[in-house]
Amino acid sequence: MFKMKNSLRVVGRKTTLFFEDLGGIAILIKNILLGVPGSFKRFHLTTEQMLFMGVNSLPLILVTSIFTGGVASVQGAYMFSDYVPMRYLGTAVGKTVIMELGPVLTALVVAGRVGAAIAAELGTMKVTEQIDALETLAVDPVKYLVVPRFVSGIIMLPILTVFADFIAILGGLVVSVSFLNVSAYTFLNGLKLFFRLRDVWGGLFKAMTFGGIIALIGCYQGFRTTGGAEGVGRSTTRAVVLASVLILITDYILASFLFGT
Amino acid sequence: MIEIKEVYKSFGNNQVLNGVDLNINQGETIVILGRSGCGKSVLLKHIIGLMKPDKGQIFIDGEEITAYSYEKLSNLRRKFGMLFQGAALFDSMTVEENVGLGLTEHTALSREKIKEIVKEKLRLVGMAGVENLKPAELSGGMKKRVGLARAIAMDPEFVLYDEPTTGLDPIMADVINELVISLRNTLKITSIAVTHDIVSAYKIADRIAMLYEGKIIWVGTPQETKNSTDPVVMQFIHGSSVGPIPTLT
Questions:
Q1: Quick count: other Cβ atoms within 10 Å of Cβ A164?
Q2: Are B105 and A138 an interchain contact pair (Cβ–Cβ within 8 Å)?
Q3: B-side interface with A, Cβ within 8 Å?
Q4: How close B105 gets to chain A, by Cα (Å)?
Q5: Fewest CB atoms within 10 A around its CB: which of A3, A19, A25, A109?
Q6: Sheet harboring B2-11: ordered strands across?
Q7: Among residues B212, B217, B213, B215, which one has the least CA distance to residue B228?
Q8: Kind plus residue range of the DSSP H or E element containing A210
Q9: Which DSSP symbol is given to B244?
Q10: CA–CA separation, A211 vs A243, rounded Å?
């Protein structure tokens, strides 16, 4: 009986926390949207974040994308062997990268690098009372800290995804030509064969949504930080895990809407 | 003038403020004494609207602020400056940007004019020439002084000090005390300081209040406080482990 009561209490507490988080995120989204029009007044804050989120992520995106494209080619060739002509390898790699791998893997990499950094930075500001200090100076922390990160997330993720798509396809091409006995002409012809611009826009829309999620979750977790260095560590981990899970769930929902038959 | 009427605040089962009543007069320096964790900083955060009471009212210049919207509170805060316990300087900014942030955000002053004001405020706290340093390059005492310059940058009517001398060596603590006194004399600021540093309290206060078990149990001048026969006040000012204040908390 005691055990059951305890379990019910835990379930109750977790459920309350879940709805508390949901409500907190909804309020943060509302405040961000109200703050976006005024963000041009402090656009230098957004450009700083764009540099950090975008330009500084390029080396990591370059490495992950080139190997992602290579793996897509090797796996595609393996699945095609004896059943599908290799002239469709470029089609498969292109579609997979543009519609799925490019936006999702870029988002996961950025969630690990930038989402964690946002949560750690804002979390440290919270526990050292810097966010309280902003408020005492009558500066709205959402407008000053969150909006620039959110705007830069939704701008930079699509740009990073275009870069990732290009590099991954290049990686796929290099692997196909070097190891899979598929000529560059065949690969590129395959790439063009069923190319639809709608796929590119769909992938970029996904990337934009993921950029917003990464910034939103990083900021939310940062603002909720309590308990010193340990709390900052906890928030950082939670930001990366939650953003990654949300990216994958949102990916499924968006794919169903954008590419569903 | 600030009036605090019957303010209650709890966190979970912990009743931190339990009906605080206190009036703070224009132009005076009041020091609120109390043990670590007794709710002094919480009270300060209520005065500036960073926290809302569960029950009770706070009046600033006759206006009740507890029911204020975020925008109204934001406007009200321009009358305030606050020095935080750890200074709470923004790590990513230089000293100049830290001190000038309020002016950059809320005034249409030119960058040159803001630089000039920042320089002046830094000179007032004895920190001229550090404009381009980052907070990480400053010592604890220097950070507090820069924090103080930031707090007075907008020429506030009220300055709140959260443990202004905690963590400083006695000489630097006295430098901060002198600064608080000089700011009151030159700028005619109303100051509210919370601390457990008795030496500092005697030096800077016009009146001393004591917060104990969530209530203000004593208000008096430094001389009256020294001569108090209240056993809680006596135990606290003499720093004795024997008395009505429990030590195992």
A1: 33
A2: yes
A3: 45, 48, 50, 70, 74-75, 77-78, 80-82, 84-86, 88-91, 101-102, 105-106, 150, 154
A4: 7
A5: A3
A6: B14-24, B2-11, B55-60, B63-64
A7: B217
A8: helix A197-223
A9: S
A10: 10
Predicted pLDDT at B179: 87
Q: With contact defined as beta carbons under 8 Å apart, do A65 and A32 qualify?
A: no
Per DSSP, the three-state class of B219 is strand
Which of B41, B48, B50 should be substituted to probe chain A, the one whose Cβ sees the most A Cβ atoms within 10 Å?
B50
Angle between helices A2-35 and A147-179 (to 10 degrees): 100
How would you class A22 by CB atoms within 10 Å of its CB: exposed for 0-12, middle for 13-18, buried for 19 or more? exposed
Place of tokens 């990216």: A247
**Residue A49, min C-alpha distance to chain B (Å):** 13
- Go through chain B and tell me how many residues it has: 249
β-strand partners of B86? none
Residue B248 — very low, low, confident or very high, per pLDDT cuts 50/70/90? Answer: low
Cα atoms found within 13 Å of the Cα of residue A116, Cβ hemisphere only: 13
| pLDDT for res A74 | 96
Q: Kind and range of the H or E element at B211?
A: strand B207-212
- State the pLDDT confidence band at B242, using cuts at 50, 70 and 90: confident
**pTM value?**
0.90
Contact B52, B68 (CB under 8 A): no
Which residues, in sequence order, are CB contacts of A141 under 8 Å at separation 6+? A131, A134, A135, A223
For A234, phi and psi rounded to 5 degrees? -65, -45
Distances (CA, A) of B117 to A231, B104, B126: 38, 11, 14
- What one-letter code names the amino acid at A258? L
Number of neighbours of residue B57 by Cβ within 10 angstroms:
14
Residue B240's pLDDT band, with cuts at 50, 70 and 90, is: confident
Interface check for A20 against chain B (CB to CB < 8 A): the answer is no
Burial class (CB in 10 A: 0-12, 13-18, 19+), B100: buried
| Residues of chain B neighbouring A142 (CB-CB closer than 8 A) | none
What is the block-wise mean pLDDT of chain A (261 residues), using blocks of 10 residues?
A: 83 91 94 90 92 94 96 94 89 95 97 96 96 95 96 97 97 95 94 92 97 97 94 96 97 92 67
Cα dihedral value B63, B69, B75, B77, nearest 10: 80
d(CA A161, CA A103): 5
Helices (H), B83-139: 95-106, 111-124
Residue A100 corresponds to which amino acid?
A: E
